Structures
1.
Amino acid sequence: MPEPTSQHLTREEPMEDEISLLDLAITLAKHKKLILGAPLLAAVVVAVFTLFMPNIYTADTQIMPPQQQSSASAMLNQLGALSGMAGAAGIKNPNDVYIAMLKSRTLQDGMIRRFKLQSVYRAKTPGATRQTLAGVTKISSGKDGLITVQVDDKNPQRAAMLANGYVEALQQMTQVFAVTEASKRRLFFEKQLLQAKEGLSDAEIALKQLQEKTGIIQLDSQAQLIISTAAGLKGQIAMKEVELGAMRTFATGNNPDYIRTQQMLAGLRGQLAKVETGAVTTSKVPETGLEYIRKVRDLKYAETIYEMLAKQFEMAKIDEAKESSVIQVLDKAVVPEQKSKPKRSMTVLLAAVATGFLAILWAFITEALQNAKKESETVAQLNKLKQNLRWN
């Protein structure tokens, strides 16, 4: 018997393809009512359902939060080393802080109270109200550094009010919490200033008690000048040492600013050494007078530290006032004119397409099951025929 050649195979393959395509067409034609009727029915049902869905309006606003400034650039201006220590939080993306504040429970509770959202959303508990508010709010940060706040609501006016309310609440929170570098510096200097004030008060009390105990001691003008100069230099040296320690956290030994600060510190120490060398020898001063000189020196030192910290504290407050208003509203939320949800036409179209696909799939599955059943029945009949033939 001759084997089928490749020519015969090529003739049979198109025949099989034609048969399979013909079977597909027959199946589609056989179930045409289901394939055409099901999508139409689904489209009508979904269209009616969407008609009862309320219109949702979306209001959005964009804000530009303040960016963290480099503490190294501020360290050279009027002993800014302490500001570098205060602002060493190291936040990689400042916008993450503001987004966390916008999503915080404290801010949400303020929004709920302000706009009476528990009654608006008909929620039984404040927790349920927060969940509803979070569900209708979308807060995101773009690559351009802007933060977008979007709020959905059935009432377009309320949607705009809620979006703007988020920004207003954030501005109020930044007045309370230390977020920016300037606010951290202000808190740091405020604590240091309180400690310096206590030290100054203790020095004043100690000097007063000594004066009451021994009587007022008058020093000559040269001694007073030496004490004042030495105390001032010690105060500057202390501040420069703190500045140098803060710079070590981010600068190497070859950093020009670090080297310049070291040179300034060495110069101050040299001046202090000259002042102390030229001072009146302590051997010529009575014990009572020597103790008085020490108390006066401590007082002058405390006054110098307090004055320097007070200047830094005032500068930090000024910077904080500038940065607190830097949360700028790029686009204020306005009342939306058109609804954002539901998209009825798109929903009806998707429902019809999805139902049509499922109807076609159901038609093929049904046809395959019927064919399998017919084939099994045919096989059963052939087996029965064989058994009868064998019996005979």
Note: The beta strands are 57-64, 137-141, 147-153, 328-331.
2.
Amino acid sequence: MLFNSFTFVIFFTLVCIAMAVTNLPAFQAMPQEKRLRVRHIILLLASYVFYGWWNWRCCFLMLGLTVVAHVCALQMKKPVRKAALTVGVVAPLLVLGLFKYYNFFVDSFCAVFGIARAGALRIILPVGVSFYTFQSLSYTIDVYRGKLEAETDFVRTALYIAFFPQLVAGPIVKAGEFLPQLREERNISLLNLEPGVQIFVFGLFKKIVIADNISAFIDAVHRAPAAYSAGTLMLATYAYFVQLYCDFSGYSDMAVGCAKCLGYDLPKNFNIPFISPNVNEFWKRWHISLSTWLTEYLYFPLGGSRKGEARTYFNILVNMTVCGLWHGAAWTFVLWGFLSGVAQCVYRFTTPLRKKLPKSPLLTAISTFLTFTFICFTAVIFRASSIGQAWNIIVYIFTLHKGIRYVSFWGVFGLVVTWGAHIAACVRSRRLGIPPTGYYPTVKLSTFGGLLAFFLFVGITLALGYTGQSPFIYFQF
């Protein structure tokens, strides 16, 4: 079930109605704990319907991981706490390894040692498995570390892992951010619907107007890169990263908007990443939930920067290579993650030299452009079907390859609009005297002007939106 589909509109409307019913006097007369439980059951059932829409069998996999996480967390105060931690960590990793990486590792092993393989194991990759396994892992580890108490109510544990707005493509929510909300009086209200609907539409614009319209251009170029000129390939290189950003951040916005409508708050996953003057800053602004998850549960346990420079560089490379592998079972993702790690190591190594340079707006603008260009070129590897194809595209660009010259309107439009939005956010931040940060441009729907602006934006979104059904890019992860 796609957010950008009529089916989801019907589904979400029914969920909202069901939740709104619990505001009626008959439910308000109930004890709060019982009323909250009814709401949680409604949301949990809705989440499993949402997830089962793709393949109902995958619901049993998610349910199994939920049971493991719940039971293991409850054992953390007993003598078997280390065994419980082991089971709570190993089980999700085994699921992830089997469903996502088994064929990749076996094929790679056979290729290295020249072993013939009879055939690949036919396994359906469950949608969003990388996201809910990471949430299960973080919950178990946080309880073990004493950061939060184990949840005694299975329904609340299950809802934390399966909450449908962020279930299949994030953001990755930590238990400490979400479980406390389930103990509070949260539900449908006009106060939440006003910003929630607008944030959802904002994300929808990113997805169907910018990302989906660019996708036709990108797909055509990557099908036959040798047919296009260096200029067209360069435009496609920059435009693809805009597509990736608008597709993924658009989903995150829609997830935040849906959750807000239901009365819950999800963390922002992106913070105007294009204005990052270096790669370290970029990873603090891009896919924030994954970056912080890997930092907390992988980089710091490896030693972080506490065990000398050589170990720090090693930890950075491991952290970012795992980040690449998390995105997909292919060497293109591994290389993309490794190069991202190398860039962070270079940035760290050159810190003493950069501190001697004078600070100026011009140098900041140049470093921002170079950072953006580096990210776009590494994204070629992320998008390519093979490392060889990515290499060919980059060689064609730098050797001024001749071919079809095509200036994609949507590619240029996406670059202009996205960069314009980033600059507007920076101008706003400077005017308010706060660090550069993104924001949702919501309006007051209680005013005629606000209502007019909102419906005008909805009309533009529907008029310019891509008419086909286009899955979100991060569904495959």
Note: The chain has 19 helices and no strands.
3.
Amino acid sequence: MERTKNNRCFEELFQLYLPERIRCAVANIQESYISDLEELRIRAGFPLMGVFSGYDCFITPDGRLTGDSSHALTVTLDELNNLFYSLCEHSVYAYQEDIKRGFITLRGGHRAGICGTVVYQGEEITGIRDISSVNIRLSRQLKGCADGLIDSIIRNKCDIYNTLILSPPRCGKTTLLRDIARHISQGSSNFRGLRTAVIDERSEIAANYKGIPQNDLGPRTDILNGCRKKDGIEIALRGMSPHVIIVDELGDQKDAEAIKMAWNAGVRIIATAHAFSLEDFKGRFGVGQLASQNGFERIILLGMNDGERWVRVMDANGNELDFLNQNDWLSHDFYRLHSNRTEVVSQADTEAACTSKIYRDTC
């Protein structure tokens, strides 16, 4: 049911923005594969490409998936330009602040990444011109995907543990973070909802569109959109008196200093970071020091092994508190969202077939 609803939302998105030939090609993709579609990569003079759950394929004019780029629809420069102006609602000036950050947030929480010639004024990026490619990343909010682990980060009826979510790219950190934010803000019969501030630096957590969050982060949540973590944490502490601050993708020393500032003010933190293990994160310059006895108290590790998702919850010392897998608690949609698909997705005549990790040329 949820995937069908998502597919309808995607169809509305494609109808609103995509040029006709590209829209027709995407509309003809089998519905089961639209459910796996994560990104639509559109490059001037190059074949149309889709990134699905764990693999990528080129897309033919009639919507078939193939590993052979010569059979794919080739995007024209006019089509790319028309797409770009549609994404900007035909007002590039109005979206200039978004464009110079390299992406535009779309209705529904989707995002369009932009590449082209970067324009500088001194050390500051002021815009991007001569657009050469657009990457439309499809957003899916999976409510309930954190149901099975939320109790492991709740300290008592009115408090939570400082929690860090770690995983390699594209394993679902932000998807999980959204649902944790919703749980904490909303509360439950045995947990009082807490005032929550989300510092959404990349507009990925709430996905604000014209000031309105496109994802449900709960009724007690305030959102600072497009704001650096350090600045956002300072603003939230000064003006919003949150119990919890949520941030995505910790990186440099400034992030570490901002997290410590929040802790010194008595505020709990839930954050994510790219890492393959707790040891990997601890070795990072700057932020690695946050995973210590006086830092994050719960560590959630996400990973993938031969297409199967695994999750571990640990304390600050790396002691495993629980071991969970998708059969225990992850919703089927969350498991499939970034998992590697094992069956052949398409084979037209003697075209290449795309499999879970590679596509092979069967000609």
Note: Confidence is low (pLDDT under 50) at residues 340-363.
4.
Amino acid sequence: MCETEELRAGILHVDMDAFFAAVEQREHPEWRGKPVIVGAGPHDRGVVSTASYEARKFGVHSAMPSREAYRLCPHGIFTPGNHTLYAEVSAQIFDIFYRYTPFVEGLSCDEAFLDVYGSYKLFGSAYEIGEQIRKAIREELQLTASVGVATNKFLAKLASDMNKPDGITSVPTHPREIQRFLAPLPVRSIFGVGGMLAKELVRIGIRTIGDLQNVPLQTLISFLGESTAHHLRSLAFGLDEREVVNERVEKSISREYTFGNDEIDVEVIRRVLLELSSDVGQQLRAANKYATTVKLKLRWSDFKTITRQKTLSLAICDDFSIRDTALDLFLQQDLSAPVRLIGIGVAGLLDELPKPNPQLTLFDDPATERTEQMQKKERLSKTLDKLRSDVLDGGDIRLGVSDTR
């Protein structure tokens, strides 16, 4: 894009506000205005999945050990959550998105990019579409969302965070105005710049995006390497050529978590992995599907991202198999560098299990024994789903897959 060329805004990033906690407050009106903490119980070894804004005022945040959350906010309402319900509400949210454009790229169950360039004649400008989506979510689902409106994905995601909760932010569209808009923001505002990289940038005098815009590229390369330097430099000027990837047909189910600070503690990362695995399992069962592949995604502090996957001999839908496979993939990696993001996913989705070969039932076959064991795991996982849904209001029961390692 020429530096004098102005584009129309046509990319939205819609991000639900404290999604799991907000759904819980909607379902339990007596919890509204109170600190709600979704995740492990206050005395369990698990972590916080989501905290309401009332709880965040006390320093509670996602991926924090629940015992630490209890220390910071002992009067908080701890709930294991209802991920089957969250999946249902997520589907309703995405149905609203698809009213305005077929080009929707879901990043998780509670956020997505939308390309609305082709929707102007029907619904108005990108900003007007963003407002219509927020209104529909508020009126139909009694939830709030924050929206970023921009010319590309990076800027839209950055903008959606600026007026949370329940806000909408529009980024300028002229390149020079975009540069001025970004300049005063802290360098950590750039998606992917975690604690370790931010410290390295501060060490060379880069504290704001404006500093990053002004530093010579060769200087940046000498400190950070060519790939990272070019990546950061492009984002500092608001350049991002990624397109919204539309996949309406569900080919996989995944959950990701980005750490607030690059994480080096393997135990903390492992706890998050277990929580993500449980969430993926619940979404898989809520969709009435089975998976044949489990995937692990890791992004290091230098933006290097790896994905590892394992294809299973039997299709699965239980928490135990997902967790154990993901954990095995995780422990095979070199964990000496700080982790920025971790993701767990399943793919190769099937609507039903393949029919067994009847000839194998004439003999004692190890595969048959494994299938029986898997069925037990599936029944237990489905029982846990029901118990999560039926847990008494206000209870602090934590139901999930126990960690025996």
Note: The domain at 252-388 is CATH 3.30.1490.100 (Dna Ligase; domain 1).
